[in-house]
Amino acid sequence: MTVTVRYFAGARAAAGVDTETREAGSLAELVGQIVDDHGERLERVLTACSFLVDGTQTRDRALVLAPGAVVDVLPPFAGG
Fold first, then answer.
1. 3-state secondary structure of 30
2. SS3 state at 16
3. What is the pTM of this model?
4. Which of 35, 38, 41, 67 could lock onto 1 through a cystine, CB 3.0 to 4.6 A?
């Protein structure tokens, strides 16, 4: 299933891209892929990140992704 991943703030800096598409059936599978491809720096950032999947916030990595889902990778933001 193709999903779109959008990176913000420190996650974008660690990944080195703003957006990419992936084939993943779950959030855990997606996280594994992006860590494998983008490395330890992104892995460290992801420990503090939350995710928006089609506009709904989640930290549940077992979440099944629907085809065409948009996953936003959101590190904590200063200033609220």
1. helix
2. coil
3. 0.92
4. 67
